[in-house]
Amino acid sequence: MGGAVTRSRPPRGPRIEPSLPAIGREGPTPGDDAARITALYSSLGRLNPEEVQVLYLRFWGQLEIEEIASCLSKTWSYVDQLLENLLRKLRADLKTSFP
User: Fold this and answer.
1) Which residue has the higher pLDDT, 36 or 76?
2) Whole-structure pTM over 0.70, yes or no?
3) Most Cβ neighbours (<10 Å): which of 1, 15, 34, 43?
4) 56-95 b/e with 16+ CB inside 10 Å = b?
5) 27 Rama class: left (phi>0) / alpha (psi -120 to 50) / beta
6) How many domains does the chain have?
7) Comparison of pLDDT for 98 and 22, the residue scoring more
8) Is residue 69 within 8 Å of residue 75, measured between CB atoms?
9) CA 40 from chain center: how many Å?
């Protein structure tokens, strides 16, 4: 009779909250939104296929990191680090476009 294997997650680093660029009193204009969307698509196009898959599963598929790791036959820590790095890469790309 085998018991359930319990795995504990490694401790996570501090949660990084996204910061939005300062917007004037009049709010963003439709042109600003179009430019941001264009910049985001450009940044997404520079991700490798595995990064795109992880991003899709995490945010559109709403899977937990453990579930993504299972789908990809990777470890939890590998997927967690990959997700952290790709989000950092996207933020840096967008900061370059919108300082």
Assistant:
1) 76
2) no
3) 43
4) ebbeeeebebeebbeeeebebeebbebbeebbeebeebbe
5) left
6) 1
7) 98
8) yes
9) 12
Q: What is the per-residue pLDDT across 62-78, written as a single tens digit (0 to 9) for each?
A: 999 999 999 999 999 99
The neighbour count for residue 55, using CB atoms within 10 Å, is: 19
pLDDT band at residue 16 using 50, 70 and 90 as cut-offs: very low
**Would residue 4 count as lying in a domain?**
no
Return the structure tokens found at 23.
């917007």
User: Would 15 be classed as within a structural domain?
Assistant: no
Q: Which two tokens stand for residue 53?
A: 């898959």
User: What does the block give as tokens for 67?
Assistant: 């579930």
In a domain, 80, yes or no: yes
Report phi then psi at 17, rounded to 5.
Answer: -85, 135
* Phi, psi at 90, each rounded to 5°: -65, -45
74 within domain boundaries: yes
Residue 64's domain comprises 48-97
- DSSP 8-state secondary structure symbol assigned to residue 61: S
